[in-house]
Amino acid sequence: MGNDSFCHGLVIGLCKMIMKYTYLALFEEDIEQGGYSISFPDFPGAISEASNLKEAQYNAREVLEIFTIMFEDEERDFPNPSSFKALASKLVRDGDIIQAITVDTELVRERELSKKEDKLDYERGIQALEDFEMNPVTYSIDDIVEEFEKNL
């Protein structure tokens, strides 16, 4: 691996230790249909498409998140990141772009856990509402105070 590598040697170990990974994405402009196709040459199969560059950048991050999480979960060795120089030959059109994409898998896992917890809270709330609708019991403040005083 030469000095033109984007992330190499000690830096790769550091990237893995702190669960941050940076790889180069290739955004290829689709002249005929518009938009972009996205690929990560270091991860065969890590592809997506988008109708504009902003969406393409979002999709690229999402694809890299999926692949890095999968590699971590399967305890696979991560590929050494390609260099800009190595990918430059893949640029065919003026609108093609190479961009470094960084993901933090720890943050991705926290975000996904939070989504699951939010969904569970929502489901519990819906269940409580349905239970109430099936058996609508209401209490006056006097009833609540009386119940509270009994439990003291």
What's the gist of this structure?
This protein is of the alpha+beta class and 152 residues long.
Give the SSE string: HEEEHHEHH
Give the DSSP E fraction (strand runs of 2 or more residues): 15-25%
Overall geometry: elongated
- Give the quaternary arrangement of the chains: single chain
Mean pLDDT: 81
Unreliable stretches: 1-17
**How many DSSP H or I helices?**
5
Between the first and last Cα atoms, what is the distance in angstroms? 73 Å
Task: Going across the biggest sheet, name each strand in turn.
Answer: 3-2-1-4
Helical percentage? 40-55%
Structural class of the helix and strand makeup?
Answer: alpha+beta
Any idea what the radius of gyration is? Answer: 25 Å
Characterize the largest beta sheet: strand count, sense, and whether it forms a barrel: 4 strands, antiparallel
Question: What's the count of strands?
Answer: 4
